[in-house]
Amino acid sequence: MGATIIIKNGRCMTMENKNEKDWIAIEGEEIIALGNKDEYEAFVDRNTIVLDAKGNTVLPGFIDSHFHVIQTALDSVSLDLSGAKTYEELGEIIRDACKQYTKGYIRGIHISEEQFKEKRFPDRAILDKYCSDVPVVLNSMEYQVSMLNTYALLYFKIPFTAEGVELDEKQMPTGIFRKQANAILRKNILNGIPDSERREATTKVMADILMNGITTVNAMEGGFMYSDKDADFLHEYGNEFPIDIVLFYQTMDIEKIKAMNLKRVGGCFYIDGTFRARTAALSFEYADFPGTMGSLRMTQGELNDFVLKCYKNGLQLALYTIGDRAIELALKAHENAYYQTGITGLRHRLEHVELATKEQIIRAKKLGIVFSMRPSYETYWGGPDKMYAQRLGDNYTRTNPFKSIVNAGVTICGGSDSNVTEPRPLLGIHSAVNHPVEKHRVGIYEAIKMYTYNGAYAVFQEDRKGTLTPGKLADVVILDDDIMSVDHSKIKGIKVNATIKSGEILFSNLK
Amino acid sequence: MSIHFLGKVKIRYNEKNVEEKLGSKAIALICLLALNRKRYVSREKLEGYLWPDSDTEAARYNLRYNLWLIKKNVGKDHEGREFLYVDNECCAINSDYLCQCDIIDIMDFETSPEDTIQRVMDLKLLFRGDLLEGYYFKNCDEFNDLIIFERMKFDQHKIRILKRLVELYEGEDNHEDCLLVIDEILEMEPFDEDMALKVLNTYVELEKPVAAVAYYNDFNDILANGLGVFPSEKLRNRYIEIKSSLDHHKHIGGKESKFNLTSYCIKNIEFFWISDVVGKIVKNIDFNCIDQLNDKEIYALGRIQGDILNRLNNKDSLEDVYKQDIMDVGIINAFIKLINCIGDKYSLTITILNSDHMDSTSAGVLEYLKNTKAKGLELIEK
Questions:
Q1: From 3.30.2130.30, 3.40.50.300, 3.10.310.70, 3.40.30.10, which CATH number describes the A75-191 domain?
Q2: Per CATH, is A266-465 categorized as 3.10.450.50?
Q3: What would the DSSP string read from start to end of A295-320?
Q4: In what order do the strands lie in the sheet with B84-86?
Q5: Distance CA A246, CA A325 (A)
Q6: Model confidence pLDDT, tens digit, residues B221-243
Q7: Which of A143, A144, A180 is most worth mutating to test chain B (most B CB atoms within 10 A of its CB)?
Q8: Do B227 and A339 lie within an 8 Å CB cutoff?
């Protein structure tokens, strides 16, 4: 029997019992065989595509377990303004974009007050200097603040009566919106984006996702700071895209979830905030802001009610928790729901879960909770000289303790949190292996597992994905190096040479 | 003549639309004069708003031309009056001219006891969109600013008018229409908890507590999705009240006798939650259950909740007997026995508010009740 694709000369890590093979045969959308040496020749006929891995690693397609698909797509067609050091630099980037403007509005992202010497967000008077005849909408780093030029103030429906409209001394809006006003405005703007634009941007971003070896994403969409229209769009059109998109709808509306026939709910369903904004709920004070311990966005009772509803409706639930106090709230709610219902096996997840204590990890194991974590955060913010240490002081040594979690038997699935960070599973693997705190490091095999088998397990897809096994989907990546023998510090430099999704070669750099 | 500046601009004279003949600057000019309806506006000021980049002569000419264009398309009224007063220095709308203009009607509105629903409803219907919707006047920064400022004011006018209409409907006990208007307010201010509370109360007035509960859940979702927060305690407590009364009614006449209690917690006051529950049991549940406790047990509970001592005939004499003898563990055991006695006979639901503020002794007892799965007991932590 001829295979459609053979990958030969590979170090094929099946991710099953640490087995390795030399080749894989793919027929249609499935893997049909794996083996060693020249046995693959029996599967070759004149139509077979033979790919030579040249001794490099071959892995199951990566599963990114936490991904904001639509926001990543929209960001990819937005101006990244994080590099502008002055209002002038920012203005010139906007001015250039105006020249190429064709429709809609100009969107700029990733702005922080600190990047400018004035330590202030630019108001509409500044933006108007560079662009006054096209709507311009800029967003702060975490989308908590929006900045509009005058044209945009006239173009969009503005929630003038809501809290958070910044006014100048003449009681005129400055174009800067925070709090409720920002939330309403953002919803107005995002809801006004037509699906055609979502489709166009998402199609465009797929190339980048495939180039990074990702064949499945868990899409965290809708709800607070996002638009339900994003989730509705992916629910309806998600299967038009080349990768598999597993939707996590960020809502509390259980009836809607049931009506949509979804099996899961949540994602960035916020129990607390972020370390950067000092809103993640800690059991100790922030080192750089004594007296502040972050805050919980709901009470134990409220969360108990919601979690219980999820149990009773048989829904898998993903809760956003970062600080140890938020993790505690979530675990208590799960313990309560388990006590009330006795239901197990729903593989509930905690998202991010950056500061779990040893005792919390053990309780999570008892409850069968999966930790959906972002290892690359350690590369961006971990260690003694970055954001974690600034905010947490010596407690930076407690963040993302991968090793203890794995040793306790809790499943970790890895995700990028794109659009917040880059969608690069290999950077995530690198970060888990090279955690700045040595005792938290895991081995390469365990780190790969986070993005393959564990990712599949976390969405009940381990029967079809996550390992290189005959009968499973042919989701496969070929790397440009042997990940198991490369120096640990160089893992992040490894590239994906080819990505195969359901038996189709969708990205290839193979020579 | 009628003029609509809110939403798509419409200017009708003699049953004909004339806005297209006027063009955007003439429309802006009329709008400026309408916004300043009670005063003359200098030509210089008008030129500054609408032709800021032109030299003085050109600006004057442009203004003159647009005034002529208005006069050409908007003639005299039935009484022979001109629409505009124009002289060498200033311009103004003739307030005697027979004309209905949406923004003037809205700006002139002052709340008064004579307001009628019809009058306020007519004003509400004038809000068809934003002021000069779809207009942007290139290089007219001051005028664009004015539009933004006035849009903000008209949003405030709208809220004021809607709230007045709510009051009038409330005054007439017209709760159905009242709800429709509150909905409009919440469309503009989706996180307004006072309005959400009004919705709950209005549903109760309409004897639709189920709708109130469903609305609260939706509002809860809107807050969570929109702001990542949850309703205030005030709103939440009202919801719990409505829901509890609903649950109570549900079980009346059913086979099962069910009691619902709502209890509270106060941080750092030991035994507070237990005391609160005992107090409510004494007030709400028949005494047979309590009578299954012996005197010593009732006395023990009396140490944290005096109301229960009324069940003792000889409490004064028992005081001497038990005063030294009651330890914390005795109080706790008595409480657990009481809960179990009630569970034998009834289905008891205890809603616990502020559960994260529960004192440590009560928290331990709660844990015990959960772990032993006390019969007939349902605990709801809020």
A1: 3.10.310.70
A2: no
A3: --SS-HHHHHHHHHHHHHTT-EEEEE
A4: B41-42, B90-93, B84-86
A5: 29
A6: 788 777 777 788 899 899 989 98
A7: A180
A8: no
